[in-house]
Amino acid sequence: MSLLLLVRRHLRTAAGPTVALAVIAMLAATVTSAVPRAVAALHAEQLAHATAQASAIARDVIATSPGVPGYGAGYVADDGPVLGATGAGSVDPPQPDLDGYRDGLRALAAAQPEPLARVLGEPDLLVSGERVDVRPVEGNDVAAPRIVLRAGATARDQVELVEGRWPEPTPVVADRDAMLPGTDGVVDAEPVPLEVAMSTASAAELGWTLGSVHPTDDPLLPPAELVGTWEPRDASADYWVHGPLAVTPEVVLDPNVGKIATAAVFADPGTLGAWVTGPTTRIWFPVDTSAVTSADAPALLAQLRGLTATTSTPVEGDAVTLEPTSGLVDVLERVLGQRQGVDAVVAVLAVGPLGALVAVLVLAAGLVLDRRRSALALVRARGASGVWARGVVAVEGLVVGLPAAVAGTALGLVVVPGPVSPAQLVAALGCGLAPAVALGAVATSRGTRARRADLDVVPARRRRHRLLVEAAVALAAGLTAVLALDRGVVAGADGTGPAVDPLVVAAPLLVSVTAALVVLRLVPPVVRGVERVLARRADLVPFLGAARVRRDAAGGLLPALALVLAVGVAASSTVLAATVRDGVTREAWGAVGADVRVAGPLMDDETVSTLAGVAGVAAVASVVDLGRVQVEDAGGTTTVTVYATDAEALAAVQADVPGAPERSAALVAPDGGTLPVVAAGDLADGPLRWPGGQEVAVLERVDRLPGFPPATAALLVDATTAAARLDVGAGSSRLALLGLDDGATAADRARVEREVAAVEPNAVVDDPVAGERALLSSPSAAGLRTAFVLAVVLSALLAAATVVLALVLAAPARRRLLAVLRTLGLPAGAERGIVAWETAPWTAAGLLAGGALGWAVPALVLAVVDLTPLTGGDTAPPLVADPLWLGALALGLVGVVAIGAAVAGRLGRRRDVDQLRAGTD
């Protein structure tokens, strides 16, 4: 019989196990095809998201240089205004070549390497002077009006004129000293007013009208004449972020001066260059990272660091040079840190199912071999070699594996479109060859013979080899774990190293495999002890079940290995998901410190009382900054920032805030002559003493005071106690923490925030729920949640497949046993108990070991992977487990086993007569 003919007959008969092999290969190919592209797309989306969330100031490449560009080599930035002549006469101001300077900026950007060159957008610049006081307009409520003279290369393109015209070049006094009164009190030169244009909002605020002239307080600067008013074409454009004060003026209410309003006004570049002393030029390249791929991010960071570390001359000989800075460096570092955390977590979550998948693949191969055993035994009896028999099943594996891998790869492309890398093709080929390799491995001369495991004598040499392999795995697990823990967390990833540290992947995998091996060693002796105990009982089913587990466990030892790995990954995913979520919540609430935080203007008693009267507000605690004080500690003296508040109100506000002081309410009860405080930040342990000898009693030490301004070291005191006991100033409050009523809904929270904003329209209102939502809505957080869910689902599927395959493998022997027992009077329904006993010990062991791994693996990950970029904090989040989810996982696994046992027990009732004729155990 030819090999191909036998393979063809195999594929046409008992095709179920072969189809299972194909499904496993297709699933593996789909995952290896889709996951790398999905992770790469996730990183690219996170970079674009982080860049879009950042303001133009925190994103663009920016340089601020003294002087006015475009004047060439004859201009020195520090020498003052550009003058065309000397004497008391007026001259036309020379015009700077701003467009030529921008051409130099474009050439500089184009000369950068990729991807930096395509990230840098169209350059622009603005020239600005210092703030200048102008004379108030009679009848206007602005007591101290100020202007900032400004000129830009594209300013005219950014606005629409409402009235008048754009400023034109006007003659300037060549010798500015001629504007000063001489010894005779006479001014030799009267300058022509400097033409300016301003926004309609600024003109209305300052009370300027078209054609009005406004003298300045600078005797060397002419008055300003308003020749045009304008409206911005796009008030939200980044141009106005780089050029503030232009669209709307800055208004400050000073109790001593009154209203102070400062507006930026546009002038002709040449006229500004001739009049303004000490001008500065702001140059910027808009940044667009939408076309940057995940692989480009490390190179972009390195190139950007190189650009910002050098001084460039865009136009040869021009006095204005380029010393750029960019907040994009910080954005990229944060994104790459998030990428490192996501990659490490995904890798850890992937290796566990990979090991379980290999075990399931071998189980499925064993099932195929079980269905082919009689045919292979027949051809071996007719003289076929063992190699030929292996070739038959290997070819069968190739026939089903390669098409399944192609289908899985195509399905992965449908799920996650994108380019296919050579590594992905190699992985797909490996998935296609895996069924053939697994079938060839199990089709040994021993594997083609039916036998009982308990009667199969294992040679001493094989036992020693197994022991050595297990010892080597355990030693490798300990070594990698120790090395990873000894090295600690590697923070500040720049993307120049490997995407995932091999230790981060190897240590959890080896620890998981070691746990599975320990289970394989411990379960048989435990079952043997249970069997001896049950042998004394009258009921048959428990004893018979335990005996069968010892004699011939369903599927052998592979199901235990697969179950431990699958349950361990599912539990690890659940714990890591809860840890990241809790870390995000802690950071969001730690930054705000209350249900609502109000920061900005002065918070006097009347304002605090008004805030407390808002419907839904349960308590208000205002925070008073008492300044910095040097306290004596064990190491000498330490400078601390002292904050005072109503301690009881703060305790009520922060009752449920993570990381908040637990004993803040006790600050109102001084202990003897000491001053009770809560210490935060970098303060040495031991007693503290206030300047002048006042002893300080530290009731509690915390890492930080949630919601308070950041400080290296801080002390929190009760406001009433501080007023009575301390010789400090009254201080001022610009911060209030609000606690809402219990059970406040999202609608209640939004209403309170609107009313608080109405009470303090110029304040910043922070909501921890909004901050938490913003962190969790990022692509990295969303992708990580998807990875956790997929890991749990895949682990559950693998656990179910393991149980089903193991029960199906044991079905023939079970049916023969049950047929005999029924003839001897086995009661109906007892077969379900026997079936349950086949998997119950391994299921219980898998749950226990998997649960332990669900805690150990995340602890190891937290010790070696920096997850702070994912949580938005500065410190690693504590390990958190959600009992409800872990309980649901355990119940799900038990449910899978129960369903499998029920189905297997029902199938065991069939063909009893045939089984009796075939023989018994």
Compose a concise summary of this entry.
Keywords: Cell membrane, Membrane, Transmembrane, Transmembrane helix. The chain is α+β, with helices and mostly antiparallel strands. It contains 26 helices and 22 strands.
What report would you give on this structure?
By secondary structure, the chain is α+β, with helices and mostly antiparallel strands. Helices cover 51% and strands 15% of the residues. It contains 26 helices and 22 strands. The strands form four sheets. A nine-stranded mixed beta sheet has the order 18-19-17-20-16-15-21-14-22, with helices on both faces. Strand 18 and strand 19 form a beta hairpin. Helix 13 (502-534) packs antiparallel against helix 23. The longest helix has 54 residues, at 328-381. The radius of gyration is 39 Å and the shape is elongated.
How are the secondary structure elements laid out?
Layout: H1 3-12, H2 16-53, E1 61-66, E2 90-91, H3 98-110, H4 116-119, E3 124-133, E4 142-152, E5 159-164, E6 172-173, E7 194-199, H5 200-206, E8 213-214, E9 224-232, H6 239-242, E10 250-254, E11 258-266, H7 269-275, E12 280-285, H8 297-308, E13 325-326, H9 328-381, H10 386-415, H11 422-442, H12 460-487, H13 502-534, H14 540-552, H15 558-592, E14 596-599, H16 605-612, E15 617-633, E16 636-645, H17 647-653, E17 675-681, E18 688-689, E19 695-702, E20 713-718, H18 719-725, E21 732-740, H19 746-759, E22 764-766, H20 768-776, H21 779-809, H22 811-823, H23 830-864, H24 868-871, H25 883-907, H26 912-918
Parallel strand pairs: 4-11, 7-9, 16-20, 17-19
Antiparallel strand pairs: 1-12, 1-13, 2-6, 3-4, 3-12, 5-9, 8-9, 10-11, 14-21, 14-22, 15-16, 15-21, 17-20, 18-19
Transmembrane segments: 344-370, 391-416, 422-443, 467-485, 505-527, 557-578, 787-811, 842-865, 885-907
Domain ABC3 transporter permease C-terminal: 790-907
Subcellular location: Cell membrane
